[in-house]
TrEMBL record:
<dbReference type="Pfam" id="PF02826">
    <property type="entry name" value="2-Hacid_dh_C"/>
</dbReference>
<keyword id="KW-0560">Oxidoreductase</keyword>
<dbReference type="InterPro" id="IPR006140">
    <property type="entry name" value="D-isomer_DH_NAD-bd"/>
</dbReference>
<dbReference type="GO" id="GO:0030267">
    <property type="term" value="F:glyoxylate reductase (NADPH) activity"/>
</dbReference>
<feature type="region of interest" description="Disordered">
    <location>
        <begin position="376"/>
        <end position="395"/>
    </location>
</feature>
<dbReference type="GO" id="GO:0016618">
    <property type="term" value="F:hydroxypyruvate reductase [NAD(P)H] activity"/>
</dbReference>
<dbReference type="GO" id="GO:0005829">
    <property type="term" value="C:cytosol"/>
</dbReference>
<dbReference type="GO" id="GO:0051287">
    <property type="term" value="F:NAD binding"/>
</dbReference>
<protein>
    <submittedName>
        <fullName>Lactate dehydrogenase-like 2-hydroxyacid dehydrogenase</fullName>
    </submittedName>
</protein>
<feature type="domain" description="D-isomer specific 2-hydroxyacid dehydrogenase NAD-binding">
    <location>
        <begin position="159"/>
        <end position="306"/>
    </location>
</feature>
<dbReference type="InterPro" id="IPR050223">
    <property type="entry name" value="D-isomer_2-hydroxyacid_DH"/>
</dbReference>
<dbReference type="InterPro" id="IPR036291">
    <property type="entry name" value="NAD(P)-bd_dom_sf"/>
</dbReference>
């Protein structure tokens, strides 16, 4: 029988990426956090060790587990009560009776039957994630993927010409015409933490941003100044860039609901020479439809970030990236393929996500309160709601309401803005325009600092 006072928690992915003193990826920040919460951190397996010290949680760090056989051998018999994972796929027959947390948003890799698989439907244990923790890192990598190919100035070629002294600014630049991003249409599929951050960065480049999301998000999409699209096809219509951030959706009898969402209908609606970016889940794009779009020129470049796994014995490749490899013989120069590295290579993101995952699994075990629950709430647990790194929610607004100094700063800035606006309209004072913009900037800065923008996270 599981002892909740002395749980054994398996960590199957790296909780730090920057090298530590020994040259290996460091885990010291997460270890220190676990110990501050009264836990013990062990490198290596719980198997074959003496009974752990009673009355405290014990974490066992095995970040290099990879294959199904390895995971089943380590965690198929209920040795561990809970698990923290990032990219590693947990097979159905791995067992964690007290729950699991995925570092990141999607939970498709959390396949354990303990909570009913990746959508958390069924089972006896809660499934949780850490949504938004990697939103900024992923969004920045999406823009990096775009900026590698748009504007399409051949930077490497021009650098070589400059280095060789074989180019003249006055005579030769006419050979390299290009177009800026400003005014181009950037279509975003999904309005979660990552999709919204991508949209904000695209807008910073003065692109027209069109977002497809569920209809209940429309008022928030439009309130932020983005264009709402009712369907993925509507979002893609004439778009120069398409970036997908919608997740796989529920798992049904025929697979994940959003698998193949970006297919022929969506791709054919794009502007000629469009850029397609999928830094979400590989299965979201119909690879055969993408091949046809690359062949026709409808898509000039595709950037894909998806898991790729190699069997160490056989050398065979699997995972959602594997189907894209079939495009290489015909379209290698039009592809940028990453092994699900866009956000998973950011050290601060991984550390903060792991610390949040530690807190969530300990809270669930010790108090029965789950946060960022995915799927069903098992018996004996309560739903503590979502933690939201971006956007204002109940907790953040309650914190603001109870801080008189912050409330007064917002009131003062708001009143100053209204006075300046009235002065401009009614008095026509010579300095009214300058004062209005100064007060507008201050108010906007305070609103951003308090996260009083974007959708309400209730």
């Amino acid at each position: 029988m599981t002892d909740k006072t002395t749980p054994k928690i398996l960590i199957v992915d790296l909780v730090g990426l920057a090298p530590g003193p020994d040259g290996r990826p460091g885990h010291s920040d997460v270890k220190a956090h676990i110990e501050a919460r009264g836990g013990a951190f062990h490198e290596g397996s719980a198997r074959g060790r003496p009974a752990p010290e009673a009355g405290r949680p014990h974490f066992y760090y095995l970040p290099m587990l990879s294959t199904e056989a390895e995971l089943l051998a380590e965690a198929g018999d209920g040795l561990y009560d809970a698990v923290i994972a990032a990219a590693t796929f947990l097979p159905k027959d791995t067992r964690f009776d007290l729950g699991g947390v995925r570092i990141g948003s999607g939970t498709g890799n959390m396949g354990s039957a303990s909570w009913g698989g990746g959508d958390g439907r069924g089972g006896i244990a809660p499934l949780m994630n850490t949504p938004g923790i990697n939103a900024h890192a992923t969004a920045q990598m999406v823009m990096k993927a775009l900026l590698r190919v748009r504007p399409d100035l051949p930077v490497d070629e021009m650098n070589a010409l400059v280095a060789a002294g074989r180019i003249d600014t006055g005579r030769d630049l006419v050979r390299f015409p290009t177009c800026k991003l400003e005014g181009r249409v950037f279509a975003v599929i999904g309005y979660g933490n990552i999709g919204r951050e991508v949209a904000k960065l695209a807008r910073a480049f003065r692109m027209t941003v069109r977002i497809h999301a569920r209809s209940r998000h429309r008022k928030w999409v439009e309130s932020e100044g983005f264009h709402y699209a009712a369907t993925p096809r509507d979002a893609a219509d004439g778009a120069d860039v398409l970036s997908v951030h919608i997740g796989l959706g529920p798992l049904g009898a025929n697979g994940y609901a959003n698998a193949g969402l970006v297919g022929e209908e969506v791709l054919s609606a794009l502007a000629m020479g469009a850029v397609v970016i999928n830094y979400d889940r590989g299965e979201l794009i119909d690879v055969r439809a993408l091949s046809a779009a690359l062949s026709s020129g409808r898509v000039a470049h595709a950037a894909i970030d998806a898991d790729l796994f190699q069997d160490p014995a056989q050398g065979t490749l699997s995972g959602p990236m594997a189907p894209y490899l079939s495009l290489l013989p015909s379209h290698a120069e039009k592809l940028s393929l990453l092994p699900h590295a866009a956000a998973d290579t950011d050290h601060p993101t991984r550390v903060s996500g792991a610390i949040q995952a530690v807190d969530q699994i300990l809270d669930a075990i010790q108090t029965g309160v789950t946060r960022n629950l995915k799927g069903d709430l098992p018996a004996g647990y309560s739903d503590g709601g979502a933690t939201s790194p971006t956007g204002a929610g109940e907790g953040r607004l309650e914190e603001l309401r109870s801080d008189a100094a912050r409330v007064e700063a917002l009131r003062t800035a708001g009143r100053a803005f209204l006075l300046a606006l009235n002065s401009l309209v009614e008095d026509g004072a010579a300095t009214a325009g300058e004062q209005l913009l100064l007060d507008s900037n201050l108010l906007a800065t305070l609103l951003r600092a308090e996260s009083l923008e974007g959708p309400y996270k209730g």
